[in-house]
Amino acid sequence: MPDKKLHLTAFMRPVSLHTGAWRFPNSHADANFNLTHLKSFIRKLEAAKFDAFFMADHLAVLNMPVEALKRSHTVTSFEPFTLLSALSQVTEKIGLAATASTTYDEPYHIARRFASLDHLSGGRAAWNIVTTGNPESSRNFGRDEHLQHSERYKRAREFYDVVTGLWDSFADDAFIRDKESGIFFDPDRMHVLNHEGEDLKVRGPLNIARPVQGWPVIVQAGQSEPGRQLAAETAEAVFCSPRDLEGAKALYRDIKGRAERAGRKREHLKILPAAFVLVGDSVEEARGKRLELDSLVHYDSAIASLSIALGTDASGFDPDGPLPTDLPETNASHTSRAGVVKLAEDEKLTVRQLAQRLGGYSGLAFVGTPESIAEEMETWLREEGADGFTVVFPFLPQGLDDATQRVVPELQRRGIFREDYTGTTLREHLGLPRPENQFFA
Amino acid sequence: MPDKKLHLTAFMRPVSLHTGAWRFPNSHADANFNLTHLKSFIRKLEAAKFDAFFMADHLAVLNMPVEALKRSHTVTSFEPFTLLSALSQVTEKIGLAATASTTYDEPYHIARRFASLDHLSGGRAAWNIVTTGNPESSRNFGRDEHLQHSERYKRAREFYDVVTGLWDSFADDAFIRDKESGIFFDPDRMHVLNHEGEDLKVRGPLNIARPVQGWPVIVQAGQSEPGRQLAAETAEAVFCSPRDLEGAKALYRDIKGRAERAGRKREHLKILPAAFVLVGDSVEEARGKRLELDSLVHYDSAIASLSIALGTDASGFDPDGPLPTDLPETNASHTSRAGVVKLAEDEKLTVRQLAQRLGGYSGLAFVGTPESIAEEMETWLREEGADGFTVVFPFLPQGLDDATQRVVPELQRRGIFREDYTGTTLREHLGLPRPENQFFA
């Protein structure tokens, strides 16, 4: 597999996804509403040739106990479409992925905004399709009852059909603009969708020309059964959260297999696990930085995370002792609980450190030197655990600088990451074909 | 009134609002999806110290006979939020007004996007509240029946309360960001809206800090009875379409009076009639250019406009003769019909020219030299027909260049338009106060 290369996208919150990061030395605690910082971040990512900048999003102030809420920088930030449109003007090549919900928005609006972002950015837009699982969002959109999981996925599938149908409203050559004859466009090259399905009824046509990329790139994060199936049928990049390489390989095989059974090519769907990347001069120094970062998570909110993971109240445990070995039997998922116990043992964490890890960021992490991290990434690529990674930075700006200035050059030295962009659109960066218009040759 | 000055906003479609403009010599027929042109336009408007750039919008491909539709450049363009967010990064001072519908969107989304645009632009956002009157939009949003006019305005009023309530979710000083104590924000300075009204149910809080301007500037265009009342209660800038100075003065008095009766200050609501501005070296040359522009409207679509205005089929009239004097009695509005007859007489227009005027742009127009146009604008300002204008350019880029480089200097020479911006936010340009937070002192 000499030519196989990694794809890298940056999964961003302005202050980082780690809940203690805003307190880290030199962090920009005001970045949620300070565009200067975000412009600097995306320019650095583009200089490092990342495939895309991917903005995380929520449709509510997250439901947390007030003691945790008041310590969280993740509560408020820019709205993704407005932010990414602004950032499109300070960059030229990097992809721009926005999260948009199929449960709390209208397909006409979603189709239109992504098409517009794609035109504005010269073909760099991607849609991260989410079905919005948190019930507090429903109450911001007039509903007491949150839509059931399977209902959300059924609607999402139909929503996708409508949005992609609307993107194909005009043939690529519909706009003639012949000043002499006065014909602006050929109405025979315009398609009226007239969709009437179980959940949605949308006439069309979309009042915007076909996107530069044909369709913006489709991204999805689901790992549930309907989530995997939706991804296999529709997604071109899958953002997932395996815990380790074995889990990743199983997920990779499963989703690629489903895609093939749905009549798609394996290589037209990229598997990009989320990976927290923390760089040090030595593995020990990197681990020390991680403990320092975790220590900034307040114990009150941290211990709540540990209690939830264990399924038992952990607030009575000695914070500075090891995790008790005589945990009571509970209803907590065995997998989740076993993972927590193993984590404490492997890294010799105290109860406090374990709680702060869970309250900070506890997903897949590559913590080490540029060489060790590049080595891990290369292994995942070669063993088909990943086609690349959705990189999570532990803190900003330093964590992003370390990844772009230290890890990326090591990946390039190994020949598994591009030295420069070879195309101009996100589809070209990801090696994805431009979809044919389903209504016009 | 020595200090009274005009406010000028530019009412934009990328190729102009005039339906023949894309065929005009040197026009940018591709501007609907060519951001380079729009960036150039807005930079010129900012250099001329315009208050705001105002993007017209629709939520559908407009319902026209196919013969007219295929000749129209108004069918497709960028979506306003994505466009204005992009343009915020190539400008520093000019206001950015987006149209958003209260009938086909959710208040949480609308509040969030305008707040985000306001943060991204440093306090330059304005919301043009529309209730979306065209029935073809309803079919793009799952509805067969269009909401009745009075129902739309009732919902709009409640929608406004929800959006402004969401903007006030956080006190201006809520975000403490004390790295030492770990407190990111003060939960006592966050308000949960818990709105439950007749049409809307929205919990809140909004997941975004209070906008730079407190609230983005509220703009409205309604001239109907409920439209005027909604404007008087809520709008800070009214975009209206009087036919002449007498009509404008009556509308001005009416809306300002209603605002006072609603407990507001007259000067906190700016009346900005739409005005088509076409400049020539002489009045005759300007009128000639207008005839040339109108002549680019195809006769088939033009004659349909005339038939509608007269309430009778005009396709049998001699295109190159005068309007027949023996028009049959019809159900057409007498005002509209009398206006058309008067227009034909005043400007000695043939049937063809009259039809092309109606099919092109037939609203209030200032057609003349920089001096004559400035004189008219000054009269409207002094006689309280307007606090400024929503300028419509006949063709681009030339019409915009003429207005900014020839009319604006003449207005400045007369002391009725700013030489430079004195503030940084749109509220400051318009002389509007920053609203108090309704939930926090």
TrEMBL record, chains A, B:
One of its GO terms (molecular function) is oxidoreductase activity, acting on paired donors, with incorporation or reduction of molecular oxygen. Keywords: Flavoprotein, FMN, Monooxygenase, Oxidoreductase. InterPro entries: Diverse_substr_monoxygenases (IPR051260), Luciferase-like_dom (IPR011251), Luciferase-like_sf (IPR036661), NTA_MOA (IPR016215). Residues 27-387 form the Luciferase-like domain. CDD domains: Nitrilotriacetate_monoxgenase (cd01095). Belongs to the NtaA/SnaA/DszA monooxygenase family. This is Putative Coenzyme dependent N5,N10-methylene tetrahydromethanopterin reductase. It comes from Aspergillus mulundensis.
